[in-house]
Amino acid sequence: MYPLQLSAFTLTTCLGQGVQANREALRAERSGLKPCDFESVALETWIGAVDGVDAVQLPAHLSRFDCRNNRLVQMGLQADGFAEQVKRATQRYGADRVGVFLGTSTAGILQTELAYRRRDPETGALPADFDYGGSHNAFSLAAFAREYLGLEGMAMAISTACSSSAKVYAAAARQIALGTIDAAVVGGVDSLCLTTLYGFASLQLTSTQPCRPYDPSRDGLSIGEGAGFALLERAEGAAPGSVMLLGVGESSDAHHMSAPHPEGLGARMAMAAALKAAGLVAADIDYINLHGTATPANDAAEGLAVAAEFGRRVPCNSTKGATGHTLGAAGAIEAVICAMALIDGRLPGSPGTQQLDPGLDLNYAQHGSDAPLKRALSNSFGFGGSNCSMILGVQA
Amino acid sequence: MSAQPALKMQAWIDGIGFIAPGMPDWAVASAVLRGEQPYVSASSVLPVPTLLPSAERRRASRVIKLSLGLGLEAVAHAGADAGTLATVFSASGADGHNCHALCEQLATDDRQLSPTRFHNSVHNAAAGYWGIATRCMAPCQVVGAFDASLGAGLLDAMAQVACTGESVLLVAYDSEYPQPLFAKRDTPDCAGVALVLSARPGPNAKARIQLHTTRARAATMADPALEQLRQQVPAMRALPFLQRLARGESGSVVLDYLAPQQIELDVTPC
Questions:
Q1: How many structural domains are present in chain A?
Q2: Domains parsed from chain B with CATH numbers
Q3: The pTM is what?
Q4: Can you list the alpha helix ranges (DSSP code H) found in B107-238?
Q5: Quick one: pLDDT band at residue B50, thresholds 50, 70, 90?
Q6: Which N-terminal stretch is annotated as signal sequence (chain A) (predicted)?
């Protein structure tokens, strides 16, 4: 099934639109987080908001999809010439031979939240301009991206909370392996909304400060928004230096809806499954982009799992201090951060982390450094105990 | 030109679970689909989720009862072990009643959400409860594609069987929204189908299916009430295929997926 080639990739986060803006910010170890000023939200927390989303205009014939989430989809697809590269693949393979697999946890729920403030005072009805399928539904971003890109083949949304857009890689890889498609647009988009901001606050999982992954003083996450996309194709013909998908591993905690398995058992199983799928061993990994949400329980469980599987040899860190936790988009965004690290030969740093939790025996890289990297592993774990790890590498 | 498929999208159906308005389980549904008894629509009957501890059982929402009920019936029918099966949950939406309550509260000045309501709002809540209840640590995929959700679930479940050689439980289900969302998404009631799919024919195999994508027109149901059900609930797009299974008929059947892409299943009874 593996390897597959990431023949194009892009990301848009609070650090900026496109690879170069994100590369510069990560190199400078700059955080994109700011005190929450989103909509009418009154919470003492920090957010990673993407600039310019509100100004995006969808094509007139796709106006039924208009909402913050799909504006962010379009912003993401336009960055780095990604949409053009998909069009070239479509010309090569045919419009029904390029699939769409997108992860999300929020989709356009903000649009519904806003519509609930505009209910008819007499009947309680939602406003006529509210389009459930175009904005609210979990598939709305995949439907929009498919039409925006002119694709006619298979498409699906994957919604496993914060592992969603890592698991899209596994689903797409299966279809490419079976020959039902030749290429796939994979990725994820989540956008700021009241449900996640107030929801994570209700679970006491948001920090009042910028998040501090793996720091002993960490006390919660900072919610971000963003978009990450890649074009997956078969590996034949991949030029030296191409970024390759080497394997994906999936598991379930079977433990709790919103708390990780305390020893990180499910997380460890996902990492082991990714190594197995890639035909690799722990010693083959040069960098781990941790899930690292900066909640006390997540980082402790993941840290134990990483230490058990990899010891303290592999440099690892979380980039959520820079981007915030982009929830259903995190897997896709951090896959692209790994791809950039592999291409640039540079580990990103971990803004926000002042020191490593002394209870965790890890080779935690607080700061970025130049390093020859051949293979990177990225972790994404979600509510409901949904775990996914993926391994990317550079074509020799 | 596309490459030759390396592996076939093929599986054997070991067990079936079914719940729909007027058809509380696969035994009743298959009798209706064979024409042995008339279809009489009635509110869906959702089984008590015996899998859950008593506190969770009492609090279980309709969508949890629906999806767990479907999965348990299929697993029992197949004689399979729920604790080891990889799963694919496929649904157009999450818990509509819970979503309504959250949106209603967020439209007020008191935005202090219930933590339980929030973690139950994720699309994979039913899948999460299934994992907790069955202690199953196997991979669990949760997909959706609006009206095309059944096809998305079949595609990933069949692909997992073909790629891993392991059995997979597919649970495709949909549930209703209360007003005012109901006016925007009119799924009338809870309904769904679950299939235990295996890579090899086992002692409980009912039929072999092979999946292809096609642009052919989807089959419809001759009975107007069943046709209405097929059109109203995304998971019920499976009805023409389930009728073939119930009747033990072989041949191919085209199911609605995502225009212009459709799904064709070649069915061979065992």
A1: 1
A2: 10-206 (3.40.47.10)
A3: 0.98
A4: 115-119, 125-134, 149-164, 224-232
A5: confident
A6: none
pLDDT of the residue at A41: 98
Min Cα–Cα distance to chain B from A112, Å: 7
CB B243 within 8 A of CB B221: yes
Residues B122, B60 contacting (CB under 8 angstroms): no
Do the bridges between strand B207-214 and strand A34-35 make them parallel or antiparallel, or are there none, so unpaired?
A: unpaired
Model ipTM over 0.95: yes
Q: Cβ–Cβ of A384/B102 closer than 8 Å?
A: no
Residue A389: pLDDT band with limits 50, 70, 90 = very high
> B200 vs chain A: nearest CA distance in angstroms?
17
- CATH number of A206's domain: 3.40.47.10
Q: Where are the alpha helices (DSSP H) in chain A?
A: 19-27, 68-78, 82-93, 109-116, 140-148, 164-178, 194-202, 265-278, 296-310, 320-323, 330-344
- Tell me the helices (H) and strands (E) count for chain A, helix number first: 11, 17
What domain range is A215 assigned to? 4-395
Residue with tokens 């030749």: A182
A175: alpha, beta or left? (left if phi > 0; alpha if psi -120 to 50): alpha
In a mutational test of the A interface, the residue from B117, B146, B149, B265 whose CB has the highest number of chain A CBs within 10 Å is B146
- Residue B5 clears pLDDT 80, i.e. is over it: no
Q: What is the mean pLDDT of chain B?
A: 95
Percent of chain B whose pLDDT exceeds 90: 93
What is the radius of gyration, based on Cα positions, of chain B?
Answer: 18
